[in-house]
Amino acid sequence: MNLKRYSACYAFAAAFLVSNPVFAQHDGHRIIKPEDLKWENAASLPPGAKVAMIDGRINQEGPIIFRVKLPANYQIPPHFHGTHERVTVISGTLNICIGDRFDKQKTTAMKPGTVNLMPPKMHHFAWTAEEVVFQLNVVGPWTVTYLNPADDPRKQ
Asked: In angstroms, how far apart are the furthest CA atoms of the chain?
């Protein structure tokens, strides 16, 4: 056993683990902390929702990661997306249901850490009782189509 070689490996690993973030952010590698997120109004959701882009662009092809912040007592009417949707709840409880008509009694409470996987064009709706933050991992372009066009805030 070559102790000198193992010592060098441990020294490198220790230096990597305690290095400053600038080192970890070169050559395409990025670390995005919650305090670095830039929250903006979400045009495709009812007023009050905020979105923070992490990676990719909503209207372009390719992988997209973003977070959505919904206020307390908020509702998203029945809608669907053109691509697979992967939702991970970060904080709060997101109540969600598959269906064409909004009905709070039929929803499932998604607490922090819960993941929801939906295929394209799955009709669903959601509501909150408290502020909720969740992360979406999708492939773009990402779209929202409301079952009732009158629910679409982009047309109001």
From this structure: 72
Q: What does the pLDDT read at residue 156?
A: 83
Write down the H helix ranges in the chain. Answer: 3-18, 21-24
Domains of the chain with CATH codes:
32-155 (2.60.120.10)
- Residues 100-112 have pLDDT tens digits of 999 999 999 999 9
Q: Compute φ and ψ for 22, nearest 5 degrees.
A: -60, -40
Helical H runs in 1-136? 3-18, 21-24
Give the integer Cα–Cα distance in Å for 125 and 78.
4
How far CA 145 is from CA of 33, 105, 149, 153, in Å, comes to 31, 23, 8, 11
State the Cα–Cα distance between residues 51 and 57, nearest whole angstrom: 12
CA distance 71 to 94: 11
Amino acid (1-letter code) at residue 18: V
Interval 40-73: pLDDT, tens: 999 999 999 999 999 999 999 999 999 999 999 9
Average pLDDT, rounded, for the chain: 87
